[in-house]
Amino acid sequence: MVINTAVQGTLFPEFTGCKNLYRVLCLGQGKDGVRMVLFVRVNDNLYTYSDERLSAALANIHQGTPPPVPTRQHLTGPVTRWDRGIMGPIGLINTVEDICKLYTQAYDEPEEKAPCIHRAQDLVTYINLWKKCKLETNKVMNLMLKEWRPPAWASQKLCQKREVLRDKERARREEDASGQ
């Protein structure tokens, strides 16, 4: 996959002259229709904080300390799900060149292992939430969303997974209805 584009720049701002162990940037704040959301970059990872964790994260940032971040041991499931008011860590791929490399690797991955597809999908989910909060987008974000198409086998696998979940939900509803 080759993306022919004249787009230059980065998804999110780079750090400038900071020598702290934890480099933190507050990227933006908005409302997704359900909750207030704070978007934060800590080193090379992206996080979002919702209502219940937003004030604590902002207080930490204003004091010059990193906001609370989940550890991998406490994470269950995809990182693009809310876990106790925090979504993340999502690895940041920031430049157009790196995004192109990631997409190329994702298309070349076998079905058994797909870390690049998961990384790309997590980042796309983050940017979609960014847009849902009506925050300003740039050309790199728009390019990333426009060009991302999961490989056919990944889309097919997701459709099968959705169908199984629908069947389970249908069976549960029928069981609940017959029990009443």
Summarize the structure.
This protein has 180 residues and is α+β, with helices and mostly antiparallel strands.
Write out key terms for the chains shown.
single chain; 180 residues; alpha+beta; 4-stranded antiparallel sheet; 5 helices; 4 strands
Description:
The protein has 180 residues and is α+β, with helices and mostly antiparallel strands. It is built from five helices and four strands, in the order βββαβαααα. The protein has helices at 51-63, 96-108, 115-132, 139-147, 152-179; strands spanning 24-31, 36-42, 45-50, 86-91. A four-stranded antiparallel beta sheet has the order 1-2-3-4. Helix 2 (96-108) packs across helix 3 (115-132). It is globular, with a radius of gyration of 19 Å. The protein starts with 23 loop residues before the first strand and ends with a helix.
| Overall helicity | 40-55%
**SSE arrangement, N to C:** EEEHEHHHH
The rounded distance between the terminal residues' Cα atoms is 54 Å
Rg from C-alpha positions?
Answer: 19 Å
Average pLDDT reading: 81
The total of helices stands at 5
What is the fold's blueprint, element by element?
Blueprint: E1 24-31, E2 36-42, E3 45-50, H1 51-63, E4 86-91, H2 96-108, H3 115-132, H4 139-147, H5 152-179
Antiparallel strand pairs: 1-2, 2-3, 3-4
Helix pairs in contact: 2-3
